[in-house]
Design goal:
A hairpin with a 4-residue loop joins β4 and β5. This protein has 137 residues and is an alpha+beta fold. Helix content is 30%, strand content 13%.
Length: 137
């Protein structure tokens, strides 16, 4: 069996990141994320962070991680969210995602794609008469 891979973000381990202050974490992030956090959090982002902190307390107390559902796709993943389960809305449904250390610094919306890949093939059963024609070239 292989040992669990130690995740390092910009030279800091997960334990070190979780012990840093919010200002120090913000200074480690890329410029777009840093600017977004320095401008302040929106009301929906603030509420989501509070719900995530409550979920973390419940997880520590009961051992079971509750799933937090959200429409807020523009929140940046912080080290304190690692280990939580978030269901992110993609416009149609909620995509359940577990936050891993590799996700730190990314937006929640990156993990719930809003469009599916469509592959067209030959018409199947139930195709209309006009769609039965498939060009050979």
């Amino acid at each position: 069996m292989s040992a669990k891979k130690k995740v390092v973000y910009r030279g800091y381990t997960l334990e070190e990141l979780q012990s840093l202050s919010m200002d120090d974490i913000i200074n480690l992030l890329p410029s777009r994320q840093r600017r977004s956090l320095l401008r302040g959090l929106s009301e929906s982002q603030r509420k989501l962070i509070e719900r995530l902190r409550k979920a973390k307390k419940i997880a520590l107390k009961e051992g079971e991680v509750p799933v937090v559902r959200t429409h807020c796709r523009d929140l940046i993943i912080l080290p304190e969210f690692v280990g939580l389960k978030i269901a992110i809305h993609n416009g149609k449904e909620f995509i359940e995602t577990e936050i891993r250390p590799e996700m730190i610094g990314h937006y929640l919306g990156e993990y719930a794609p809003t469009n599916k890949i469509i592959k067209h093939s030959a018409p199947g059963v139930g195709a209309t008469k006009s769609s039965l024609y498939v060009p050979l070239k």
